Amino acid sequence: MVKKILILGGTADARELAEALAADPGLDVTTSLAGRTSAPAMPSGTVRSGGFGGASGLAAHLVDQDISLLIDATHAYAARMSTNAAQASAVAAVPCFRLERPPWLAREGDDWISAASPEAAAAVLPAKARALVTIGRQQIGPFLARLDITVLARMIEGLDSKPLAPHRIMLARPPFALEDEVLLMRTEHITHLVTKNAGGEITSPKLEAARTTGVQIVMIERPDLPDLETARSVEQAIAIAGRMLAGGGYGP
Ligand code: NAP
């Protein structure tokens, strides 16, 4: 019998996982996207878009759609969706695990400023800082509100309105090469790089570029998430999915 898997997506890892699992004829794979991006990169298999209506809505969806396995492959900072996934899994008694890349770690000699939130990161920047802010558009507000610093905000999709001078938006989609990151930091005279701790290699060249150019890194720390079994790579996720579909336990 074909088994249905629901992947909560929005990341490159979720797409890679969907591609691998959808190649199995015994699996019917759907990826769920939040629906915030107008032209998202599309995963293999079926794609649905938009929220479920909280944990209870997701639990009802799992039961209605006869889902055998739920995989939370959302971004490490999508804390609400991850919390909903853990709760819905327990309520609907559907196995669930998370796919989350290991975070980047500071290397010897690195002097990262740690910030608990985007608001805290914006507050920690000194007057006259020239900050490259790479956290997307949703939480850029506190940075653009600071008119005593200069923000270059890099994001995939733009804002509805132009930011006040001296701030600028730079539209770009990863991956980014090390030499391009170094060039950007040098030509823009960047003093601070603000980033979330996404982990992985697709966007890590910015960290190396900051080291090379002496740019201070402001690292927004990952939020606390519910205690769920966690795959650290797509390969691990495929193995855990196989085990859970075979009946090897579920839940937090
Ligand atoms: P969030 O704050 O944790 O979630 C807010 C609400 O959005 C959820 O309660 C849910 O609505 C809906 N939602 C989120 N992810 C969804 C998904 N994959 N499918 C269906 N509904 C979803 O999430 P967020 O931080 O805004 O992130 C939204 C999406 O962007 C996620 O898919 C995430 O993987 C991706 N993303 C986020 C970041 C980041 O830095 N936060 C970075 C890169 C990509 P209901 O309660 O109505 O179900």
Structure characterization notes:
The chain has helices spanning 12-22, 54-64, 79-92, 118-124, 141-144, 178-187, 205-213, 234-245, and strands at 3-8, 27-33, 46-49, 69-72, 96-99, 113-115, 130-133, 150-155, 168-171, 192-196, 216-220, 230-231. The chain is an alpha/beta fold and 252 residues long. Strand 4, helix 3 (79-92) and strand 5 form a beta-alpha-beta unit. Helix 1 packs across helix 8, helix 2 (54-64) packs across helix 3 and helix 6 (178-187) packs across helix 7. It starts with a strand and ends in a 7-residue tail after the last helix. Residues 8-11, 32-34, 36, 51-54, 57-58, 74-75, 77-81, 84, 136, 196 line the site of NADP nicotinamide-adenine-dinucleotide phosphate. NADP nicotinamide-adenine-dinucleotide phosphate binds next to strand 2, helix 2 and helix 3.
Descriptive key words:
binds NADP nicotinamide-adenine-dinucleotide phosphate, alpha/beta, 252 residues, 8 helices, six-stranded parallel β-sheet, elongated
Mean pLDDT: 95
Number of helices: 8
Shape category:
elongated
State Rg: 20 Å
Major sheet size, sense and barrel closure: 6 strands, parallel
Strand order of the largest sheet: 3-2-1-4-5-12
* H and E string: EHEEHEHEEHEHEEHEHEEH
Can you lay out the helices and strands and say which pair or pack?
Layout: E1 3-8, H1 12-22, E2 27-33, E3 46-49, H2 54-64, E4 69-72, H3 79-92, E5 96-99, E6 113-115, H4 118-124, E7 130-133, H5 141-144, E8 150-155, E9 168-171, H6 178-187, E10 192-196, H7 205-213, E11 216-220, E12 230-231, H8 234-245
Helix pairs in contact: 1-8, 2-3, 6-7
Residues 8-11, 32-34, 36, 51-54, 57-58, 74-75, 77-81, 84, 136, 196 line the site of NADP nicotinamide-adenine-dinucleotide phosphate.
